[in-house]
Structures are given as C-alpha cells and as structure tokens.
Amino acid sequence: MRANRETDVWEAAYRQHFPALMRVAYLMTGSNAVAEDVVHDVFVACADRLEGLDDPGPYLRVSVVNGCRRHHRRRARTAEQAQLCDEIELPSELVELRDGLDRLDHRKRAAVVFRYFLDMPYEEIAAALNCRPSTARSLVHRSLRQLKEVLQ
Amino acid sequence: MTAEDDLRQRLHALGEHARTAPHRPLGDHPHTAGSSSQRRVGVAVAIGLAAVLVVVGATRSDRTTEIATDPADPGQRALLGSTQGLPEHDLVVFLHGDEDMTSITDWVDRRPGITITHVQTQQQSFANFLDWYVDDPELTAGLTPEAMPAVVGLDIEGSAASQSLLATINGIPGVYHVAQASGY
Q1: Which of A26, A73, A116 is facing B8, going by the closest CB pair?
Q2: Alpha helix positions (H), chain B
Q3: CA of A149 to nearest chain B CA: how many angstroms apart?
Q4: Contact B20 A23 (CB under 8 A)
Q5: B16 interaction partners in chain A (CB closer than 8 Å)
Q6: What is the pLDDT of residues B85-137, one digit of tens each?
Q7: For A123, how many CA atoms within 13 A lie in the half-sphere containing its CB?
Q8: 3-class DSSP state for residue B18?
Q9: Nearest CA in chain B to A74
Q10: Residues 6+ apart with CB under 8 A from B109
Q11: Predicted confidence (pLDDT) per residue in A34-86, tens digit
C-alpha cells in the first residue's frame, strides 16, 4: 500500500493538472481518446515521482508531450495511419489548425504548443525538447511559417 | 492581429475542445476510477484516487477493460502494456505465471458458454510490454518475463459477465486479476 502522503500528492496533482494536460495532449494528438490514454499513462508512470516535486506541472507537461511522441511512433510503427481525429464538429478555422498541426513533426508541434498554448519561454521549451534555446526559437519560427501556409 | 496572436487564439480555441473530465466518472471506491480509449484491445491507461490505481484499456469499438494495479509494484506495473495485440474478448484473465494456465483452461472446459479466445505466455506479455514502452527504459529496466503475467482472453456468451462470475474467476488458483470489457 502506498503511503498516504504520496497518495494525496498524486491525487491532488491529478485533480489539478488533468484538464490542462488533456488540452495539451489533445493539441498534440488531435484526439480526445488518445489524449486521455496518454495523460493517464503519464499519471501511472509518474505516480511515485510526484511527491518530491514542488510543482509537478512542468514535469507532467513534458511527460505528456513525450507520451504523445510515443503514441505517434507506435502509430507509425503499426501502420495505423488512419485519421484518429475526433469526430467533433469544429469550426473551419480550427479544422485548418488541427490539420496544420498534424502536418508538423513531433518537435515542431510540441514547440508550437509549448510556445503559443503554454506561453513557455524559449529556455523552457529548449529544456523540454532537449535542445538549445536558439534551436527552440528556430523550431518555433519554422513551425509558425509552415502553419501560416495552411491557415487562412 | 499578428500571425502569432492568431495562432495563439486558435490554439486556445482548439484546446477548449479537449475533454477535460475523465471519460467515465470516478468510481465509488476511492481506489478505482478511470477510462480511456485506445488500441484494438488494450490495457493501458490508469487513473485512480488512492493507493491502488485502476488501469483502463479499451478497444476503438468502445470497449473498456479495467485492471486494478499499483504502479509502485513492479509485478502489477507489468500488467501495463502486456496485453497489446489481443483480439477482442469479454474478459482478460491475468495469471501469476504460465504454470497457472491449466487451472483456468480446466475451469473453462467445464463451463459451457465460455470460450478461450486468446492465450498469452509470460514471454509474450514481456515482449508486448517492451514494445509498448520502448521509449521508456526507466519503466522497463529490470523487468524480466518472470515478472509479467500470463494472460487468457475469454469470450462470454450472451450478456456481460456478472459480478459473481468475476468473483468466481478471481478465486481460481493462479488468477492474479480479471479485467472486464464493457461498453461505455
């Protein structure tokens, strides 16, 4: 049985961060079902690591983005290339964005979500993507340029 | 509005379409809760409220599987990802080891209406697990096939398995856990 304190920390983190992590995972995958899988996987994997963190948010966010990367890799490996986007009625401008995000590779997509959804500074994006801040900045700018081509 | 502002605005609008509450409500029991939808069969995901987490997997055809597990316990953690690639089934029975297969197969032989749809050895579970968590060496480090469950998939004729049936299967020697598939 896990210690009560560890359980409390985990539960509090789940309650506090689940909605935000779902948004990130949804933007990274385009699917609520996959997003929920990824977020839950992260909470399982991180269950015994959260207690020592002052703020588990950044750790969880990066873990979720990495989980999304694993999802894309698995999807590619198993040739499951079928469109997994939710059958949600989206306004056309959001469909454009979703499709545009789908065309980005993982690092670019993560860079966009980190920068423009989470408003993370380049230093943090670089840490999350394991690259230099200048590389993160370049990734963001190239992604933005790529997205502008598909966004009306 | 700059392109950056436009993108920021659209991202937030798209993000609002994320489902920010678990797909299924948290269970009454403080140790159980969760939902997910994933691959063809799967046992994967987990949420929970207390010491023991509940891992939930599902098929794309809206079938879920619940497996109680504690990620702090390497043996139970091994359940995660160990059933990838299983065909559709109504129940997934996790066994301590390959040697426990006989007890469940003998039991099924005496039960008309229940058929075995899949048998998976510990070695196969191990291979599935490694494949599933190929990018997470921390999770797979130190695991051996012996730490993985053997798995049997069951098809139950008629309606979903009753609680008494689940309890009965749980009581079979060698059974580690039973996961139930159900629509949601």
Answers
A1: A116
A2: 3-15, 74-77, 101-109, 122-132, 137-140, 163-170
A3: 11
A4: yes
A5: 23
A6: 444 457 888 888 889 888 998 888 888 888 887 888 888 888 877 776 666 67
A7: 0
A8: coil
A9: B132
A10: none
A11: 898 889 888 888 777 787 788 888 889 988 998 888 777 766 655 444 445 55
Confidence (pTM): 0.51
Beta-carbon separation of A45 and B136 below 8 A: yes
Which residues are CB-contacts of B55 (< 8 A; sequence separation ≥ 6)?
A44, B34, B43, B44, B45, B46, B66, B67, B68, B69, B79, B80
Instruction: Give the DSSP letter string of B79-127.
Output: TTTTTTTPPP-SEEEEESSGGGHHHHHHHHHT-TTEEEEEEE-HHHHHH
Q: Which of B19, B79, B139 to mutate to test the interface with A (most CBs of A within 10 A)?
A: B19
Bridge partner residues of B151 (DSSP): B94, B120
Nearest-by-CA chain B residue for A49: B72
Interface-testing mutation among B38, B132, B134, with chain A (most A C-beta atoms within 10 A): B38
ipTM of the shown complex: 0.82
Q: Are A72 and A106 in contact (CB under 8 A)?
A: yes
Put simply, the answer to whether A116 touches B47 (Cβ < 8 Å) is no
